[in-house]
Specification:
Number of helices: 21
Low-confidence stretches: 1-22
Mean pLDDT: 87
Strand content: 15-25%
Largest sheet: 7 strands, mixed
Number of strands: 20
Shape: globular
Strand order of the largest sheet: 19-16-15-12-11-10-20
Amino acid sequence: MCSRLQFLLFLILLLLPNCLAAQNTTLQQDLNQATLLLKKHHYKGEPILPQTPEFLIQVAANLDDSNLLFNKNDLSFLIQKYPDISKTILTESDAFLTDWLAVTDKALERSERFIQTFYNASVSIKTLADVEALPHYSDSAIQQNEKDQQGAVVYNETLHIVQSWLTVNSQVTIDKQTNISQYVASYVQKFKKERARQILFLQNNKLKWVSKAIKKTYMLYADPHTNWLSSEEFKSFISALSQDEKTFGLTCTENKNNKLIIDKVNPASKAAILNELKSGDIIETIETENSRLDFPTLYDWYSIQWEEGIEKIKLFIITEQNTHHVVEIERQTLENTDNIVRGFILNGLAPIGYIGIPSFFTSWESETTNKTLSNVLAKEIIKLKTSGIKGLILDFRNNGGGSVKEAHELLSMFTDSGPMFQYRVKTESNTIQQKMANDFVRGRVFNLPLVLLINENSASAAEIVAASLQAQGAALLVGNRTYGKGTFQGIYPLYDNPANTEYITITEGVIFTNKGTTHQGTGVTPDIILPTLFESDITREENLPHWISAEPIKALPEKTPRFILPENFAQIVPEFEQKVKHINTLYQTDSTGEVEEMKKIQTISSAIRKLYAANLIGPMSVQPNAQDNDLMQSNNAYAQAVKKQEKNISNDPYIQQTYLIINQLIPIWK
């Protein structure tokens, strides 16, 4: 299935016109041009390429991360022809591409046969015992030959069915005799249709697809964040950093019967305002100007949103009350629901403001617009301050970063004039220069106690803010050690001419705190650690290949901290720690067979639900600020969105623990 990120990467095609002629260049010309840009701008220079086998395996992974398209026999031909890729990639890349296209032709043809093989094999899958009886294959390795590959396809796709079944039957008691044949039959029919469309798409776009995989692999060996962007991905990158997007205003999923249903409706969309569509509605047919898709899949839904030129669609809907109607919707420029920033008040002890910060969005269209994180956040803080809050929690969990400029602007709200952080950057003269990011405005927008809630998915710009405020003693950090991305990137057009359609992101420098430390590779360690779920599975920057390491630099004079933590400060509720530890113990317990693994997943899911359902600290009520409360009275869709967010906040044990901690911070804040 396509992820939300994949969806964003293609949906943005519709936001900007693409009327320029494509750049007519070869792969070899493109790689050599990229190398020149890397030599000029990259913090460390051009990529250092590995031996041929590793490079080829990475290209295959970029083409197919499921490892079900290519096998080792495919790659052996390329290994023999290109024994030293580091010496030939920039001189024989066009021939290399031609050979990869031939290998890909064979792989796609084989994949069509594998689909039928899987379809035939699925008929014999009646119970979970039948799944356990299948030969096991690793899903993280390229298979040796076509026979093993065929077995891996059947096994891994069957596991996908079981995982999908478990998702919609999460509380059903299971054993080896649990019958899943009806679900398998329904799933496989849709799978066959969906995969056939995917293969056709890949066949029709093979040259672009394979060429991009080779380019992205080449860039990977510079560092994990230097990347090659097509024009579509570039526009998507810009969109992901914006608070607005052009969209149909819906997200979809599939129900337990594998039917496409509406998951969420953007409260600002016309369909929501007119109450035409609701969560749970089944989409029976999607009709565009040129096509009609009956019984559409989730892949169909994504494909329609990706396709440039489709501005209006008709949805044939079956409601949960089994009524039928047709809704016509158009693309609208709407607030990106992933980037909504909304302030709430937590009550029970002292009134505390709470604001979730999902990303560091900014405006790329105009420097004068106020749709930037710093401006939106400032407005939300003013709303909360008028409600009499005694402190503020900013939630940076799962915030993957975004605009470094916005990180700079946000920091200035909580610090006084002077340096906020340091950075080292490559200059035009190919030297490394140390610089400072300064706050030129005296005073702070917010002077009350401040806590930042972070976790292992807080990265990039979110880490800049967290590390800088912690180093200056301007905020207390609570949660789990962050991801560890302390580098920043610039975006460059591959060719400096109007026909350019490709871009590269290049790592230009490393961020340091005023104390001279960096979170690059190590992450930011919070002042108060809250145990996290599934710690053993967490991947951070330090786990990635080719990440950039950096030594500490000279510290700047320290500012007076806003607080000094006493010993034994902020003891967390023992029940919380015990529940998280119990879940992690369950997760790390080995299972024997798929059925036992499914039972373990059910047990863990139940334990997590109980953790989030329990009020671990006594009464903590959540309410919107006064202005949002007024708006809720006149806009039902908006009210539903706010109420859902209220519920999520009130049931979140990490927010509950942080609420306790900030109340203990109030007496010692200067």
